[in-house]
Amino acid sequence: MQQLRSIHRFIALPIALFTLFLGATGTMIQLTDLRSILLSYPATDPNVQAMREAFDGPGFYAVRQVADYAAAALPVKFDYQNALRTTVAAARTALGAKPIDYIEFRMAGATPVGQVGVDQGHLSIDPSTGTVIGHVKVDHHDDESPISARNDFKHLHRMTAFGNWALLINVLVAIGLGTLIVTGVGIWLKLYRARRTIGSTGIFWSAGGMWRSVHRATSIIAAAWLSIVVLSGAWLAFESLYLGIAVTFHLVPLPPPMPVNEYSLSAAEDTHLRSMLDVTLAAAQRDAADEPIKVVRLRKFADYEQGIVVTGGPTSRQLVYNARTGAAMTTTEAGYPAMPLPFGWEAHQTAKRIHRGDYFGLTGRWMDLLSGFAMIYLSISGIVMYATMWRKRRETGRKALVWK
Q: Is residue 10 a contact partner of residue 180, using CB atoms and an 8 Å limit?
């Protein structure tokens, strides 16, 4: 056990202030998120926008926008096929055989509108009459990193506020934290087994003063969830460091703003587009029959023809389908533009959801918050205990900062 304590103390000494910093900033992120969730802040709130960053994939992939959360749903009896025929015919008249990026239907206030993506912007068309009602030259895309208190805390938590080089600190601290958890649990197990030999079977006990007793109890209660937080944080820290190095030294190409796969508006495409629409709507009915539909988009993306459905209701979702087969698609598929992340976009986002707790629902967020408080206390109590022991050793002439 003495060896475990030596390792524990040796690792804790250089990283205690960093773990305190990470615990405090992570707790502030979680508190900001919980306030936004529990008080039902609107989608336009900067902290809510920051919390939802990358939910639907990178900027060139996402269809759902902030405005879609508050937008009206398309009418239940909206005639999609008739709207598609009218919209395509009007676009063909306006554009000739010019290639397009997408065709979609959504609400403009209280009225359905068809939109045809072209030259980075879109035409807006009345799907009931075929009248062109507007031309936006450049489509709006939500800022992926809005200015917000949440993002301020996030930049501090990731340490990118001090420069990309600081990402290395998180990797090293994550390794150190993992070691502290393993050695801490090992110390507790040895003490527990020793106490059982004298008939004391309680998992909590008071010995060594208040700081040590509460430190020991907190660590064993929080160990499991802290392990999840630390492992997912280590994953994210490594991927962020990899991304920073790859971008800085141009080791991997950045993906294009949008894959340049387009449709012509020749009459030959009409039947195919109608088939894509049928497949997409059938898949949405299969997966989200009770959810209102706010947006339906047809597009070519990379090697795939896709149908995207944005749903409404309490849990709005962006659903992406293979418009030929109706199979659900993720943000990471073979043939997608390469992302500068070692395990792909989907794995990175899953790790983020695990790290912040919402992978396990609202309960996971509360557990994550409690783990943050535990990390703060363990850091402070560890510093206090070390300072107390070092002061006592110094009084006897032993001034070494590290000892066995």
A: no
What mean pLDDT is predicted for residues 327-353?
Answer: 88
What is the rounded distance in angstroms from the CA atom of residue 283 to the CA atom of residue 261?
23
Tell me the DSSP string of 121-183: EEEEE-TTT--EEEEESS-----SS---HHHHHHHHHHTGGG-GGGHHHHHHHHHHHHHHHHH
Q: Burial level of 397, CB count in 10 A (0-12/13-18/19+)?
A: exposed
The number of beta carbons lying within 10 Å of the beta carbon of residue 52 is 17
What is the sign of the dihedral through the CA atoms of 49, 50, 52 and 55?
Answer: positive
Q: What is the DSSP letter of 114?
A: E
pLDDT of residue 268: 61
- Dihedral sign for Cα 48, 51, 54, 59, please: positive
Lowest pLDDT segment from 71-75, 186-190, 196-200, 259-263: 259-263
**296 bridge partner residues:** 105, 309
100 secondary structure, DSSP code: B
Q: Give 311's strand partners.
A: 293
Q: For residues 301 and 366, what is the distance between their CA atoms, to the nearest angstrom?
A: 38
| DSSP secondary structure letters along 247-302 | HHTT-SPPPPSS----B---THHHHHHHHHHHHHHHHHHHH-TTS-EEEEEEEEET
Q: Under DSSP, is residue 213 helix (H, G, I), strand (E, B) or coil?
A: helix
**132-136 and 293-301 strand pairing:** unpaired
CA dist 262 and 260 (Å) reads 6
**163 or 330: which leads in pLDDT:** 330
Q: Coil, helix or strand for 306?
A: strand
User: SS3 of 133, please?
Assistant: strand
Please give the radius of gyration of the chain, using alpha carbons only, rounded to the nearest integer. 27
Domain ranges of the chain: 2-51+160-254+356-395, 66-140+260-336
SS3 category, 212: helix
What is the helix, strand, coil percentage profile of the chain, to 5? Answer: 55, 10, 35
d(CA 62, CA 318): 8
Closest CA to 54 of 349, 351, 317: 349
Quote the DSSP letter at residue 323.
T
CB 298 within 8 A of CB 306: yes
pTM attached to this predicted model: 0.88
